[in-house]
Design brief:
The complex is a heterotrimer of chains A (306), B (333) and C (279). Chain A has 15 helices and no strands. Chain A has 306 residues and is mainly α. With 333 residues, chain B is of the alpha+beta class. Chain B folds into 2 domains: 4-228, Rossmann fold (3-Layer(aba) Sandwich), CATH 3.40.50.300; 237-331, Beta Barrel (OB fold (Dihydrolipoamide Acetyltransferase, E2P)), CATH 2.40.50. Chain C has 2 domains: 23-55, no CATH class; 60-275, Orthogonal Bundle (MetI-like fold). A two-stranded antiparallel ribbon of chain C has the order 1-2. In chain C, helix 4 (68-100) packs across helix 11 (194-210) and helix 4 (68-100) runs antiparallel to helix 13. Chain C is globular. The chains are: A mainly alpha (306), B alpha+beta (333), C mainly alpha (279). Chains in contact: A-C, B-C. The interface between A and C is large, with 106 and 102 residues. Bound molecules: adenosine-5'-diphosphate and magnesium ion (MG). Magnesium ion binds at residues 42-43 of chain B. Adenosine-5'-diphosphate (ADP) is lined by residues 13, 16, 18, 36, 38-44 of chain B.
Chain lengths: 306, 333, 279
């Protein structure tokens, strides 16, 4: 009876219900998060549990490391190019999908597949799609005469060897990121487009505004917050991802042509057992993520007001 | 015997004093109406009685025991929300049965009681429907049946008629009063509609800015308003006020007549300049001025008056009320 | 008139382009899994159609000679366990954040949501230490323990906004009708939250099916692998690719997950985009 009364008190019940989540978050997110800072200024490795603080040595070492520099550059290139392409495509796709037509459910299912299917599995499809010998894409290029003949646009060899050439490997990784994020950005945009009053769009069409005018003078300004959200998520998922790179190239072709921060951290920290350096590499995510978090925070606060 | 006593009850939300020192006693079986404009603290006062809010001052006594710290379920109260708050995932039967189910009553007993309550409100044929399948008026009855099925000591209702359309509202008001008399449950009823309050209440408590301005029978409230707020809020059109001999003189529009028609030997006389007349069928309203103050008279439509004329009007002395010019408080003579 | 036809043509062309762009890898998977090896490994053969009668040999190989079913079952086990944990943690927390806790509850909710923005690639190094200290390397329990790091924050947030949309008066009515705070949660809010809870179940499960990095870091034992790492590490042996089986395995595992996800897409996205996308 007394317990029942106690549970009626908000000051007792509210913390009690929150306790499990807070405990879990502190133990399995908060604690490791702090540990990754601690590791990064230490000498800790898997084989050597003897722990010593070594200051910023790890960071100095990493920053001087050519592989790290390459990875950092790749990470930014992949992120910016992918997100840019995703936005352009997503707007076009959103304008198509926002209409009503027969069989829309199936179309939507197919177009959403890259996002809804597990990305590791989707990437496996690309392994074959871009295979060095049997690539269906190469076959198509050969069939239309763009490859495999003297004077063809993509050269006279029978194959492009996508994962064997640095530039093509990077293009492939970017392509898969775009492929994967396009559906997500599109549905977020559609949700936003649906919130624009119909009269505005109709008035614009009546005035004869074309695609680009509609994009830049009506949709973009009105959709600014929604586009912000898509950019944030697209950036977040590309910037911190290593699955695509790992399945497609493992950072190759040598020397580290498609290595990114995440895969480098994995190489050093998990496969190499150098926890300290791995943690230091991964920490370079932090400024970007903190920036994203700050923007999200502002959006959320605004949303609460709405 | 008072069944609910509110003693100096207050409730603040941050800076807002929603309820500000209310003292009220509600007698057994009484129908008390809380009347006041929107934002005057009626809902908050009712939620305090229900135990959905904790008072920041004062105490609530039900049946002789202080219930400040008693959760709603142990107060022996039932409540009908303005939105009716029917459980959307339960049938009408299970909605009404819910308070009994929670008590752990056995099935046969529950069925008997639900059928009794449903019969009382004439909704026996709706028991298998979902709330989304019944009309607004029916929803309201379901909510009342659910409130009554447990035989509460006190029934609380927050503007239960305000979501109904005007036609249904009239008959619903009538039935409400009838069954309340029938089962004699102590009732606190919130409304901002003064006609509803006059029609339903054994007594009315008029609230304004968190305070009870006056509590009394509908007659009292109407004829002997405690201050200018009550006088102006109750009655349509509201009481007329004229400054006279350093006091505010107030009189009801329907007691304001041409001087020659007043039986009183020595009425209070005014020179009334009529500007506009509205004939509303049962009566007509004459808008005009006394001096420069706007005044309304509620007259028999058979009376011949012309727009633009100026006539001697008056009020019988016993029908005039006096108020303090500064505080607005009523002055008994 | 001409303009209308042109616009229609543009629409259909655009639609076709995007369908091909998005779905072709899956189409290739479908074709490849049924291709005879002889057909498959001839670079001059059209890879987009079956040039020889279809064969089930790759699918048979996948289910009989590889650990594919084990991978699927492992994913299912982990998925179910993570879903249970996620629901058990998120439901009470969401209820508390949405209804009981006041101002500080709102801030705490935002705080929990922000932890969603700490990616696995930042946490996996310290977590791998924690897992090895707990002696859980090569155990599915390591995944069960760690996966809620990405399911719980988001699911709590999603469910919180769902519960906020249930009228408060319904809950207060339950209190009046004799329930305790907890009773009102269990008897009234919980049944009304079922659509929200189903959404977080689906979402948590698809996230688990998607996860790659923790599994890669914690699991080396073939028999303990989940679908993503299982396929990419066990069916690719050095230079030997079991292409037909690999494609079949990827497709067969993708479709149910994608179907589930698509069905709940709108709810999940509106949670992802928070209140900024008004509906
Ligand atoms: N939960 C609350 N938080 C803050 N202010 C409130 C809350 N509930 C009521 N108020 C304020 O208290 C005052 C009285 O409100 P209420 O009791 O709902 O009035 P009524 O029912 O007479 O319209 C109003 O000014 C209202 O804004
Ligand atoms: Mg109210």
């Amino acid at each position: 009876m007394n317990v029942r009364r106690l549970l009626d008190r908000e000051s007792v019940l509210a913390p009690l219900l929150l306790l499990p989540v807070v405990l879990y978050v502190v133990l399995f997110i908060g604690f490791p998060f702090v540990m990754s800072f601690v590791y990064s200024i230490s000498n800790v490795t898997v084989g050597n549990p003897d722990f010593r603080v070594t200051g910023l040595g790890n960071f100095r070492e990493i920053l001087a490391d050519k592989v790290f520099q390459k990875s950092l550059l790749n990470t930014f290139i992949f992120t910016f190019v992918s997100v840019g392409l995703v936005l352009v495509f997503a707007h076009a796709l959103a304008e198509i999908l926002i209409r009503d037509f027969r069989g829309k459910w199936l179309v939507r299912f197919l177009i959403m597949l890259p996002w809804t299917a597990p990305i590791a599995l989707g990437s496996i499809g690309f392994l074959w799609f871009l295979d060095s010998l049997f690539s269906p894409l190469d076959w198509l290029l050969r069939a239309v005469g763009l490859l495999g003949k003297p004077g063809a646009l993509f050269g006279p060899m029978s194959n492009l060897y996508w994962f064997g050439r640095p530039d093509l490997a990077m293009a492939a990784v970017i392509g898969v990121h775009v492929w994967r994020l396009l559906p997500l950005a599109t549905v977020i945009l559609i949700a936003g487009l649906n919130s624009i009053p119909k009269e505005i769009t109709e008035a614009a069409q009546m005035d004869g505004a074309g695609y680009f005018r509609r994009l830049f003078q009506i949709n973009l300004p009105l959709l600014f917050p929604v586009i912000g959200v898509s950019i944030l998520f697209a950036t977040f998922f590309t910037f911190t991802d290593m699955t695509v790179v790992w399945v497609l190239t493992k950072g190759g072709p040598p020397p580290h042509s498609t290595q990114v921060l995440a895969s480098l951290a994995f190489l050093k920290g998990i496969q190499g057992g150098d926890l300290a350096q791995g943690a230091a590499v991964a920490l370079f995510f932090f400024p970007v993520l903190a920036g994203i978090a700050a923007i999200v925070l502002r959006l959320v606060k605004k949303a609460v007001v709405i | 015997m008072a069944i609910v006593e509110l003693k100096g009850i207050s409730k603040s939300f941050g800076q807002v004093r929603a309820v500000d020192g209310v003292d009220v006693e509600i007698k057994d079986g009484e129908f008390l109406v809380l009347l006041g404009p929107s934002g005057s603290g009626k809902t908050t006062l009712m939620r305090l009685c229900a135990g959905l809010e904790r008072p920041t001052g004062g105490s609530i006594v039900i049946d002789g025991s202080v219930v400040n710290d008693v959760p709603p379920r142990e107060r022996g109260i039932a409540m009908v929300f303005q939105s009716y708050a029917l459980y959307p995932h339960k049938t009408v039967f299970r909605n009404i049965a819910f308070p009994l189910t929670v008590e752990g009553m056995d099935k046969a007993e529950i069925r008997k009681k639900v059928e009794w309550a449903a019969g009382l409100l004439g909704i026996g044929h709706l028991l298998d429907r979902m709330p989304s399948q019944v009309s607004g008026g029916e929803k309201q009855r379901v909510a009342i049946a659910r409130a009554l099925v447990r035989r509460p000591k006190v029934l609380l209702m927050d503007e239960p008629l305000s979501n109904l359309d005007a036609k249904v509202r009239h008959s619903a008001r009538d039935e409400l009063k009838k069954f309340q008399r029938e089962i004699g449950v102590t009732t606190i009823y919130v409304t901002h509609d003064q006609a509803e309050a006059m029609g339903l209440g054994d007594r009315i408590a008029v609230m304004h800015e968190g305070k009870v301005r006056q509590i009394g029978t509908p007659d009292d409230i109407y004829h002997y308003p405690a201050d200018t707020f009550v006088a102006g809020f109750v009655g349509t059109p509201p009481m007329n006020f004229i400054e006279k001999d350093g006091l505010l003189t107030g009189f009801r529009p329907e007691l304001f007549h041409p001087a020659e028609l007043i039986s009183d030997q020595d009425p209070v006389r005014f020179r009334f300049r009529i500007e506009r007349v509205e004939n509303l069928g049962a009566y007509s309203l004459a808008y005009g001025t006394i001096g420069s103050v706007k005044v309304i008279a509620n007259l028999s439509p058979r009376l011949r008056i012309r727009e633009g004329e100026e006539r001697d009007f008056g009020v019988s002395r016993q029908d005039v009320r006096y108020f303090d010019k500064q505080t607005g408080a009523g002055i008994r003579r | 008139m001409l303009k209308k036809i042109l616009s229609k043509a543009g629409f259909c062309g655009g639609l076709a382009f995007f369908i091909v762009f998005s779905a072709s890898p899956f189409y290739i998977m479908l074709i490849t899994m049924f291709k005879k090896s002889h057909d498959l490994f001839n670079p001059t053969n059209n890879p987009f159609i079956l040039n020889e009668p279809f064969t089930a040999e790759h699918v048979k190989l996948l289910f009989t000679q590889t650990l594919y079913t084990t991978f699927l079952l492992n994913t299912l086990y982990v998925g179910v366990a993570v879903v249970l944990i996620t629901v058990a943690l998120s439901v009470p927390a969401a209820f508390s954040l949405a209804r009981i806790a006041g101002r500080w509850g709102e801030n705490l909710g935002i705080g929990i949501f922000l932890t969603y923005l700490i990616p696995p690639t930042l946490l996996f190094i310290p977590l791998s230490r924690i897992i090895s200290v707990l002696g859980l390397q090569n155990s599915l329990w390591s995944l069960v323990l760690v996966y809620p790091t990405f399911t719980v924050p988001f699911c709590t947030w999603l469910l919180m906004s769902f519960i906020k949309s249930i009228p408060r008066e319904i809950e207060e009515q339950a209190l009046i009708d004799g329930c305790s705070r907890l009773g009102a949660l269990v008897k009234v809010i919980l049944p009304l939250s079922v659509p929200g809870i189903i959404t977080i179940i689906v979402f948590a499960f698809t996230l688990v099916a998607n996860e790659y990095i923790y599994a890669l870091a914690f699991i080396q034992d073939s028999a303990k692998k989940t679908i993503g790492i299982g396929l990419t590490t066990e069916l690719v042996r050095g230079d030997v690719f079991y292409w037909g089986a690999l494609m079949g395995g990827a497709l067969i595992a993708s479709i149910p997950v994608a179907l589930l996800y698509t069905f709940f897409l709108d709810r999940i996205i509106s949670g992802l985009a928070m209140g900024t996308v008004r509906r």
